[in-house]
Write a structure and sequence with these properties.
By secondary structure, this protein is α+β, with helices and mostly antiparallel strands. It has 16 helices and 22 strands. It binds one RNA strand of 77 nucleotides through strand 1, strand 2, strand 3 and helix 1.
Length: about 600
RNA sequence: GGGGGCGUAGUUGAGUUGGUUACAACAUCGCCCUGUCACGGCGAAGGUCGACGGUUCGAGCCCGUUCGCUCCCGCCA
């Protein structure tokens, strides 16, 4: 470790988790918060706390005015000076790092008294305050060691990412926060311009075009740990502003990107040096899991069994089987646990939000079919199901999702799978990474009767698809694979990217397919289309969701735990009360009219 | 935009079919206590049951509206 300034020039000589037996006899100064005050009559103790830990202050030989202890209300900031001494043999605390010693206080100063009658909650101890109070008084919540540890983790992880990337020849470049509105994609946060009445900047949803322009500018290998902004509704893992590790490289193949990602994952998640991601195509992963971001730490794989039920007497199966629908089956071996009738009926509620009408089931008990839809299942069909099963056979429960809409079947099967994993406690510790490739380039937007970019409009079709792409036949475009990939960990999409379009004619065609007129394209992306004309290296990259990575490392399922000052699910900041109404003076200066 | 859950002393929770003075822990205040460290003991104070309206002899509990937090669907190129 290189020399540091350490505590030189600070009011304190040590932090609150530092003192050990070796310090006995030395004169030290500690600063921190009053964590606990214990008055045993003739004997007084204060536990002084900072983010590092606790030290016990003893007042056994305190010569000053004891009335000062009255001012040491909980959460006050105090300074204590004295000599470190070994605790009596019978008074040591093994549960504390500093439990072998205590500070024999000779001088005590209350630097800032806490108004204990007004404090909304105490950050120490086992009781957590409600979400509302925690966010309104976030600085109190941040005093909790748990949140301080996460901030530390965040900082360390960012440093590790930078180390890897810089070591691989990348440079970090800052791109503008005040940028141009892009109506494609998510809603923009918009910032009015005072100098240009009636004009607005937009905060970037991602630095996508900028990093591609850096490649065109010859930057070669770029990264940035950057903030992105999206004005969409929130979720447990989604905030209106979030952080990405944004990466772009010139002349890559997918193999390069994947190797780089593996190298980073090894460092960020402390994996084995020879770690390789499991690879799965988009089609494959959806077929097996019903989702493009499955948690693969447990099984419950699904199989498509539509063909077994074309002659079924059971309408729920026969209807999709005869009308291009889909039936998916999932087997829960008896060894995995069992489900009560109540749980099986409850599955209806699980699939409902996804458009599913219910979940059909039957049981196999001692080789006999019972319950649910068993009377529609012949021994032959069971034999066929078992021969296709990857999850075992014999006694257990078979579940079925059937619908004429394939998306409903996949989404329902995924929801059931995730529910069962929790219910049957199948989820193991650790991380399971997946590299999902060959995403479709486009998806058909039924409502607006047009194509939308599955990833974004700069994603390249697979090389062998260029000819068909430029022809632009709808049936060719429908399932066209793209040079796009996602990194999935434990059910979270922690990153995604693509090789980009670097040909002007291909990019033009993409905008055309997305239903944009040449005028739209020119107005929104004219600068970018132009740039593609003047010598563009093939390039590609990806972005990691930094907050989600920290969530996984911190083992929390709430994104607000990993952000110092998070917003609520209605995108407000309870602490500062943002957003707030602009003042009349601001509106006037910005030439904005406002309906109050 | 749609659906579910939650809202009770400063804080976290309990509160039965709608029925007397809404209960506990931590925090606060007072008294006692020389080795505690989740200190202990005795006592005190602390409530618009999120807000508004309704049903009822009577509402923390039932109904409606609304606000806030939260989870999900849509959305998130």
């Amino acid at each position: 470790m290189a020399d540091t300034i350490g505590n030189f020039g600070l009011l304190r000589s040590h932090h609150c988790a530092e003192l050990r037996a070796e310090h006995v006899g030395s004169k030290v100064t500690l600063c921190g918060w009053v964590n606990k005050y214990r008055d045993l009559g003739g004997l007084h103790f204060i536990d002084i706390r900072d983010k590092h830990g606790l030290t016990q202050l003893s007042f056994e030989e305190f010569k000053g005015d004891f009335s000062i202890l009255k001012k040491c209300s909980l959460e006050s900031v105090i300074l204590a000076r004295g000599v470190v001494r070994e605790r009596p043999e019978n008074a040591r605390n093994n549960k504390m790092d500093t439990g072998a010693v205590e500070l024999l206080v000779s001088e005590l100063e209350v630097l800032s008294q806490c108004d204990i009658d007004a404090i909304p909650f105490l950050p120490m101890g086992p009781i957590d305050a409600s979400e509302v109070l925690r966010l309104k008084y976030r600085y109190l919540d941040l005093r909790r060691p748990h949140l301080q540890k996460i901030l530390q983790l965040r900082s360390t992880t960012a440093l590790r990412a930078r180390e890897i990337l810089i070591n691989e020849g990348f440079i970090e470049v800052e791109t503008p926060i005040l940028y141009k509105s892009t109506p494609e994609g998510a809603r923009d946060y918009v910032v009015p311009s005072r100098v240009h009445p009636g004009h607005v900047y937009a905060l970037p949803q991602s630095p996508q075009t900028l990093k591609q322009l850096l490649m065109i500018g010859g930057t070669d290998k770029y990264f940035q740990i950057c903030r992105c902004f999206r004005d969409e509704d929130l979720r447990a893992d989604r905030q209106p502003e979030f952080t990405q590790i944004d990466i772009e490289v010139s002349f890559p193949t997918q193999e390069y990107i994947k190797s780089l990602v593996e190298k980073m994952l090894i460092r960020l998640f402390d994996l084995e040096a020879n770690f390789k991601m499991t690879m799965m195509s988009y089609d494959e992963v959806v077929k097996l899991y019903g989702s493009d971001k499955p948690d693969v730490r447990y099984g419950l794989k699904q199989m498509i069994v539509t063909d077994l039920f074309t002659d079924s007497e059971f309408g729920v199966f026969a209807n999709p089987a005869k009308n291009n629908g889909m039936i998916k089956a999932m087997f829960i071996p008896a060894s995995m646990g069992t489900l009560a009738r109540k749980d099986l009926d409850g599955l209806t509620d699980i699939v409902k939000p996804h458009g599913g009408k219910g979940v059909a089931f039957f049981k196999v008990e001692k080789g006999e079919l019972t319950g649910g839809v068993s009377k529609f299942i012949s021994k032959e069909i069971l034999r066929e199901l078992e021969s296709r099963s990857t999850e075992g056979k014999g006694d257990g429960i078979w579940l079925f999702n059937a619908d004429t809409d394939h998306d409903v079947v996949h989404a329902s099967a995924d929801a059931v799978r995730r529910f069962l994993a929790r219910k049957l406690e199948l989820i193991k510790e650790g991380y399971a990474f997946l590299w999902v490739y060959d995403f479709p380039l486009l998806e058909w937007d039924k409502e607006n009767n047009r194509f939308a970019a599955r990833h974004h409009p700069f994603t390249s079709p697979k090389k062998d698809q260029y000819e068909k792409f430029l022809k632009g036949q709808k049936e060719d475009l429908m399932n066209m694979p793209a040079e796009a990939y996602d990194i999935v960990c434990n059910g979270y999409e922690i990153g995604g990217g693509s090789l980009r379009i670097y040909r002007n004619d291909v990019q033009d065609q993409m905008f055309k397919i997305l239903g944009m007129t040449p005028e739209d394209t020119k107005r929104q992306f004219g600068f970018f289309i132009d740039a593609l004309k003047f010598g563009t290296p093939p390039h590609g990259g990806l972005a990691f969701g930094f907050d989600r990575i920290i969530m996984l490392l911190a083992k929390t399922d709430s994104i607000s735990d990993v952000i110092a000052f998070p917003k609520t699910t209605s995108a407000t900041d309870l602490m500062s009360q943002a957003p707030s109404e602009p003042s009349d003076a601001q509106l006037k200066e910005l030439h904005f009219k406002w309906d109050r």
